[in-house]
Amino acid sequence: xxxxxxxxxxxxxxxxxxxxxxxxxxxxxxxxxxxxxxxxxxxxxxxxxxxxxxxxxxxxxxxxxxxxxxxxxxxxxxxxxxxxxxxxxxxxxxxxxxxxxxxxxxxxxxxxxxxxxxxxxxxxxxxxxxxxxxxxxxxxxxxxxxxxxxxxxxxxxxxxxxxxxxxxxxxxxxxxxxxxxxxxxxxxxxxxxxxxxxxxxxxxxxxxxxxxxxxxxxxxxxxxxxxxxxxxxxxxxxxxxxxxxxxxxxxxxxxxxxxxxxxxxxxxxxxxxxxxxxxxxxxxxxxxxxxxxxxxxxxxxxxxxxxxxxxxxxxxxxxxxxxxxxxxxxxxxxxxxxxxxxxxxxxxxxxxxxxxxxxxxxxxxxxxxxxxxxxxxxxxxxxxxxxxxxxxxxxxxxxxxxxxxxxxxxxxxxxxxxxxxxxxxxxxxxxxxxxxxxxxxxxxxxxxxxxxxxxxxxxxxxxxxxxxxxxxxxxxxxxxxxxxxxxxxxxxxxxxxxxxxxxxxxxxxxxxxxxxxxxxxxxxxxxxxxxxxxxxxxxxxxxxxx
Length: 546
Fold this sequence. Notes:
The protein is of the alpha/beta class.
């Protein structure tokens, strides 16, 4: 993102220009308009003809679900916003209502009066966030969207508990609400189910859907393709004329398959939002995907085809024992065919109550009204995080193996013994791309906060590094809404990131670890501290806390 675009965005934020009728949606980082985001966009369009819906999009393509909305509501109120364009940052700045199911553009800085909503995009069966360390470098940007949000939507307590733990959100959880997922509302629409079956000539057919999870490894796509192709070949030959299977695969897998060679196996039709079509299905076949929890709303049969269970779970891990779920479970194609030919024979009442008791037909309308009421009551911003405990921010560098890192971690562990404090540790995401496991050295009770792309890609540009006005902006972008009693940086080398902390207007202390440091580097740190009125000490234990 260029400097001109950054400057333009900052100029917009300096004006009184938030528009009540502007809605901004960023779904899957601009790659899609997925389930929850689609149904929320549709609800706003249904409620009031004045709303303009801006949808972030990559590559100039019109996502299928955007096309479906345009077909229904016309294109005058739906605007595609190319990621990192003038249009996108304009909508980020002036929209009254903002929605995401992953995260917002890294430039985004929460404004007073904007109402932000984070819905996420599924029930966390598989480990994620800081529990899945392969992705730890990217987790912080996702966490920031939770912190920025006025409403964080969870469909059940299970999801709330696991998301708060995995993203370390417990001390920010004051804005959580438990309400069904907007996308699941379609499963309570029997008229839509009938209309789809009628239009697709499925009234007298038994309809199966196969929706596997993406394995997340481009290197093994050939192996996965061969397994799925064999499965589809076998099923196409085994099904009778009264049955049909629709398949919804990851784009890369879908492009490799030639569906024209099948008689009874078909791709999901493009004329419907995915769940709108799934609503007409009699039986879902999946594996480790949270679509099983959503489809549970229908109380129809679910089959888990887990041919690679041990291998998959060893890499990813799960929050629950998948064997404890009541759904039919198979490992071979022969077992799968048998289950496809039998009725549902398990009791799902317990898991339905656990996961789906909040889901209902009018969830989108209820959420819409909550959002409007939040703005009407002038509560549409969280400029401070309400918490009785005092919060302290620490920065210790890249946690590379050293005596310095050992001392820093011991220091943090000692601080955690004081239950009256919340301990936040800031880290640069780029430090952990190649070595994500370093972050495991910190106790799980630590509140981790990533210093993300905005700092890494913008502030460290040679033209911006000495621009003092950029650092307070960066601090607000990274830490907006969080009040720290004190900021402590324990450092054994000069780091440009120190500038963001000196721009915090908090009580800042640099603790200099002089082991292996050059005199010139020490003086550079002391000069920065003097310039920014930060304290400098040489001994960890000399730092005073209020």
